[in-house]
Amino acid sequence: MNSESYTILIADDEEVNLNLYRESLKAEGYNIISARDGGEALNIAVSHQPDIIISDVMMPNLSGIELTKILKANPVTAFIPVILVTGLTDFEDVLKGLDAGADDYLSKPVNILELQTRIRGALKTRELQRSLNSANRTISTLTNYSSSLISQFNPVSFNYDAYVQNIIDILLKNYNESIRNTPWGIIVGRLESNSIYGEIFFKDSNGVIQSSSISIPIERLTFPSIVSSPIFHSNDCNGKFPTIHTNAIEVEVTNFASIRIETDIIIFINFSYRINLYDLEILNYLFLLCESFKRLSMQIKDTENAFRYAVDALSRAAEANDEDTGNHIVRVNEYSKVIAKELRLSDRFIEDIGFLAQMHDVGKIHIHPDILRKKGALNDIEFAEVKKHPVYGAKILGDDIRLSMAKNIALTHHERFDGSGYPSGLKQKEIPLEGRIVSLADIYDALRNPRSYKPAYDHDTTVRIISQGDGRTLPSHFDPEVLKAFIRIQTEFDEIYKKLK
């Protein structure tokens, strides 16, 4: 036990006693603070929070027993060990003191060797209490973080490296000192061949987290358990761990702990206090949680990639026999996405419509290719068949919740806000918002491209037709809020068209 790191508060109204305590305890390396009465001792205890308090029972203002009661009732000082000093004949005071919460007592005249022994015992208790409090704070801090991890987990956008960096920030920055036993630095690496390769993160003198590349040959590690055990720690390296040496730093390792998950390894360097395996288990849980999220995210991303591939393929198949060529479906995705952003819709809505808008004409797979490829105007029978493609599209997409927006788009993108559209003559907010958005996006792209019955229009002409009408297309066809959003960002439509033409 290193006495230099401990502070002892001595409370006694007799200067002779204070001098005796000071001289004998300073020789042991303790930091000594003294108080001449109970009131002063109370103020010092609250403001300085010493590691141990030695108090005479009989003092002015507050007696030692009264002081002990107040200290033990205050959460700030409740766990500071208190040793009461009383006369040989005052056994009743001893009972009162212990009942008030005192941790130990000494009889006068005080034997210095006995005092030193009692102090060492009390400090062991203090360290155990600190370790328990530290573990509780660590559990609370990291449990809150893991709860946040779980509640905010998005498998598609999950970034393992970013979450590991968050854990590093929590441990190294340790705002408000919520975790008592924190490492000086953290190595995040990977076992490759015969070395550990990675980065070491540490806090510089200005409190800013820095990082530097590092490689440690396994042959230099005299602790083989670092790479062979999932969890390992040592409180006494004594030169057995190679000095951390990079372009930025050179640090001798005095204690460390390691967590290994397959070939990933995290090494915590130079904790403030002796490492507690219980605390390390908490950190291990947190990193295992991140690793589980990583694997789950990879699996879901693989599934999502397969889903997106299928959607893209189905959309391209629907477009194969249409007179629209090139990147029509890609542009409709992008138009719809920028409108949704301008309307300040949710991130999920923006992401979904920016991908699923391309399914708007999927029902054309059921339309005969001769009709879709026909040059010139369609007759009434042919046009009636084409107008069935929204219903065909909805049937193709079915009732899976993942495709619910795509189904709404396919079924309603030809509906008009004034009720003059098809297939159901829906009007205003009877039409789902995604259908109202894609309706305008599809019309814009159709006007920009040549058709059998019309030439391609430039951007300005297209905006004028949509906003003012040309007899065939009217402003009343569109949701007024969607139309206003389009007018505000119409230059973005032109940029998208030119980029993806």
- Main sheet? 6 strands, antiparallel
Strand content: 5-15%
Q: Compute the gyration radius: what is it?
A: 37 Å
What percent of the residues sit in helical stretches (DSSP H or I)? Answer: 40-55%
- Please give the domain count: 3
Alpha carbon gap, first and last residue: 75 Å
- Helix/strand-derived category reads alpha/beta
Let me know the average pLDDT.
86
Description:
With 501 residues, the chain is of the alpha/beta class. It has three domains: 3-110, Response regulator (Rossmann fold, 3-Layer(aba) Sandwich); 149-296, 2-Layer Sandwich (Beta-Lactamase); 320-499, Hypothetical protein af1432 (Orthogonal Bundle). Helix content is 49%, strand content 15%. The protein has helices at residues 15-26, 38-48, 64-73, 91-100, 112-152, 160-173, 225-228, 277-319, 328-342, 347-356, 369-372, 380-386, 389-397, 404-412, 433-448, 459-468, 480-488, 490-499, and strands spanning 7-11, 31-35, 52-56, 82-86, 104-107, 183-192, 195-203, 209-217, 231-234, 244-245, 250-251, 256-261, 264-271. The strands form three sheets. The chain has a six-stranded antiparallel β-sheet. A five-stranded parallel β-sheet has the order 2-1-3-4-5, with helices on both faces. β4, α4 (91-100) and β5 (104-107) form a beta-alpha-beta unit. α9 (328-342) packs antiparallel against α10. The termini are far apart. 33% of the residues are buried. The mean pLDDT is 86.
